[in-house]
């Protein structure tokens, strides 16, 4: 079945530092989604990428889809304490009826 | 709209007991699913439904049953609880049955402890 690896598993940064998480697939993807889960909360949709090489920005968050559509990254510029949480990528399985989630990257930001 | 609601928020069970986790959505979404979340394991799909009367298995279906008699409700049944089912359970829904292309809306979760 579809496998997706997400690295790192955990990162602790000082407020103001940048942060990047990577999502890697063993197969070419049609699309990829990113979700954020605050501590004690539920996953919340952030964005979907569809095109090869696509780059989308949401304020300090930059999302990129690889040229070969096998990997993606989420970069946060100048982290804030409000960025704390776990970031998940999610990719379709064959048949597109299931969404397979990565294991997530837990981000901790110290003031 | 209330979105996706789940009950109960927290439950303690003894091994062997059965229970039903409730999930409802008021957005007229076709697709509904159940995930479990364990430390270091991410979100794993248990069962999903592409519409009323249609369900299918996800990655980790053993020990769980589902049914979808209405568009709004998608309960998850634990037949005989085991300690390995201690987890946080999330219900999610999306507008169409091409779930992988749609935004998934998650409920607040049910924390289950099996002793």
Radius of gyration of chain B: 13 Å
Main β sheet profile of chain B: 7 strands, mixed
Structural class of chain B: mainly beta
| Proportion of helical residues of chain A | under 10%
- Assembly type of the chains comes to heterodimer
**End-to-end CA span of chain A:** 41 Å
> What would the principal axes of the Cα set say about the shape of chain A?
globular
Per DSSP, the total helix count of chain A is: 0
Shape of chain B from CA axes? globular
Number of helices of chain B: 0
Characterise this structure.
Chain A is mainly beta and 111 residues long. Chain A has no helices and eleven strands. In chain A, strands 2, 4, 5, 9, 10 and 11 form a six-stranded mixed β-sheet that branches. Chain A has a five-stranded antiparallel β-sheet with strand order 1-3-8-7-6, with no helix packed on it. The mean pLDDT of chain A is 94. Chain B is mainly β and 115 residues long. Chain B is 0% helix and 50% strand. Chain B contains no helices and eleven strands. In chain B, strands 2, 4, 5, 6, 9, 10 and 11 form a seven-stranded mixed β-sheet that branches. Chain B is globular and about 35 Å long. Chain B starts with a strand and ends with a strand. The mean pLDDT of chain B is 94. Chain A binds chain B through residues 1, 6, 9, 30-31, 33, 35, 41-45, 48, 88, 90-93, 96-104, and chain B through 33, 35, 40-45, 48, 50, 56, 58-59, 90, 92, 97-101, 103-109.
């Amino acid at each position: 079945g579809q496998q997706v690896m997400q690295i790192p598993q955990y990162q602790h940064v000082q407020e103001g530092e940048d942060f990047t998480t990577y999502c890697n697939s063993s197969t070419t993807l049609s699309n990829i989604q990113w979700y954020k889960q605050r501590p004690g909360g539920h996953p919340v949709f952030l964005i979907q990428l569809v095109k090869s090489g696509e780059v989308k920005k949401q304020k300090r968050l930059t999302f990129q889809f690889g040229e070969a559509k096998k990997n993606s990254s989420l970069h946060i510029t100048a982290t804030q304490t409000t960025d704390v949480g776990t970031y998940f990528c999610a990719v379709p399985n064959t048949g597109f009826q299931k969404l397979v989630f990565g294991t997530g990257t837990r981000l901790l930001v110290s003031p | 709209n209330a979105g996706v609601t789940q009950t109960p928020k927290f439950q303690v069970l003894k091994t062997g007991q059965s229970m039903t986790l409730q999930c409802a959505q008021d957005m007229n979404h076709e697709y509904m699913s159940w995930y479990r979340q364990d430390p270091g394991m991410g979100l794993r799909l248990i069962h999903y439904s592409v519409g009323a009367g249609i369900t299918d298995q996800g990655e980790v279906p053993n020990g769980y049953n589902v049914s979808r008699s209405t568009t709004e409700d998608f309960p998850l049944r634990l037949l005989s609880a085991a300690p390995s089912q201690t987890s946080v359970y999330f219900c999610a829904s999306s507008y169409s049955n091409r779930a992988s292309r749609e935004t998934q809306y998650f409920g607040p979760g049910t924390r289950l402890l099996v002793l």
